[in-house]
Amino acid sequence: MKEYSKAAAALPLDDYEYHEAFPGFRKRIRDHSVTLIQLMDSCCGLLPKRRRVSILEEHTPPHAVPTLNETQRTVVMEAIDSYLENVDSLLDEVRGNKMSAHEQLAVHFGGELTIEDGSGNRGGGGGALRTSRGVMRPQLTFATPVDNSDRPFTPVYDDAEGRTHTGTPAVHPFAEQIQRITMPEGQMVHQADTPPVPLDTCPLKFVDTVEGLKETVARLLHETEIAVDLEHHDFYSYLGFTCLMQISTRTEDIIIDCLKLRSSMRLLSSVFLHPHILKVFHGAREDVRWLQKDFGLYLINFFDTGLALQALHMPYSLAFAVDHFCQVKLDKQYQTADWRVRPIPAVMVHYARQDTHYLLYIYDRLKALLLNSETRASVGNLLRHVYQESRQLSLELYEKPRLDPAESYKAALYRSLGGLSPLQETVAREVFNWRDAVARTVDDSPAAVLQLSGVLAIACNLPTTVKDVLKCCNPI
After folding, report:
1. pTM for the full model?
2. Is 123 left (phi over 0), alpha (psi -120 to 50) or beta?
3. Residue 23 burial (CB count, 10 A)
4. Where in the chain are all domains bearing CATH 1.10.150.80?
5. Would you kindly state one Gene Ontology biological process term found in this protein's UniProt entry (predicted)?
6. What's the fold here for domain 138-395?
7. Per-residue pLDDT tens for 227-274?
């Protein structure tokens, strides 16, 4: 998997549109695309019979490059995830499901972090900490109870002066300010790159008290740019919640315990709304929504390095950017870790800080490339284009998931419905809707209540006993 991912990241993307004008190039791309989609379809075909779904399009025009829609991509990802989970399960069994002593090292907020094994080497062995049923449910301690109803999301937010407001559903409270902002001159011209402080010597600050958060806000208000990332949990929660916020300046890394400080996170509004402090994220589409949902935080003056990479036709991933610009290989094994765990193991803290530690330097390098690019001369400066795209992203609004009892199951199950009888499809719809209702009630994700494969298995087999139903739901 690593070799394939590395090969994919190394594919050249420059001048793609230019080469696409040549028929021979288009044919080779189409042939390779067909081969890749056939391979992905074969992966889906290896699933148990009741879960198999074909992703091959029957009516792709002969000269068109085949692509996958969002549902098909989800099917492929679920298939690959299923195989990887099986491998993880078998490896855990072989290992006796024991974490290494290094992983068991816990870091309490407020202390310094040192990550070393017995030989003095830094970094972390061991596998990612998967979602655990044994973790106490943080949402039980939230000052404001979770609302999993169908009622529209109503934001509660602070303005830049710290005054609290209750917003209007589907209305962005800072849309006017975002639309009229003029970027500070320093953000629009090339400036000397500032290499990141070596990770080993960079100060790391943990924040888990209101006083500590206030002190952090006071320091951040003196910065001109900060890098931000979030760690979110959405398996044992219907709407999900943010567990950690990482912030990096040019001189330090900061990790904020969002579970302890959930009710106080709006203190950051004065920073996030400050028009002269640039907030740098990577791939922030979900982060923008999570900030609104969990903390009533909105972004004014924001730059998404993922959008910059796309504008430059470079691979989108943060791992690629850190490797390409900083010559550092990110270990992504904790990407699916359970960020509810407290105290947080040291290896997870180490992983989390890396997501922002290098980001401001990557921004420097990308800005220079965007300023020097002439590929978008007809539209204007490519840097301005990325700022405009980032601005549009910051205007997006969080919306609570809504269930249409008559239609939602079709979008989720898609092609899997093709071979079902009318009775089986009715069962699929009712089980799907039941799953959503239970998830809202117990505050779990629908997948934690019953996997989609279980919904299809019940619909296909039409079990008539409890024992047979449970067989369809394995694993529960």
Report:
1. 0.73
2. left
3. 9
4. 407-473
5. exonucleolytic trimming to generate mature 3'-end of 5.8S rRNA from tricistronic rRNA transcript (SSU-rRNA, 5.8S rRNA, LSU-rRNA)
6. Nucleotidyltransferase; domain 5 (3.30.420)
7. 999 999 999 999 999 999 999 999 999 999 999 999 999 999 999 999
